[in-house]
Amino acid sequence: MKNPFEKEDDKSLVIVAVSVGAILAGAIAYLYAKRTGFSLNKKVNEVIEEGSEHATDYLTKKVPHLKKKKTDLHEIEEIVKG
């Protein structure tokens, strides 16, 4: 016999509602981004170009590196003997 006090589980309705809401929110965001995307792309491209100019300035500056001291085996032997 079925238990009359047992509650039915309605989690599937919640899952469906959340997934439909997420799909609708994604569609609205896509349409909004598509509508205003052209002006945003221009601004982003300008910022990227400006940043790349500054990056090339930093990369073209050469910093003098210390050269390794070259020694012969005889000089090393004298240093070790002290």
TrEMBL record:
KW Membrane (keyword) present: yes
Highest taxon in the source lineage: Bacteria
Record keywords, A-Z: Membrane, Transmembrane, Transmembrane helix
Transmembrane region(s): 12-33
Protein name, entry field: YtxH domain-containing protein
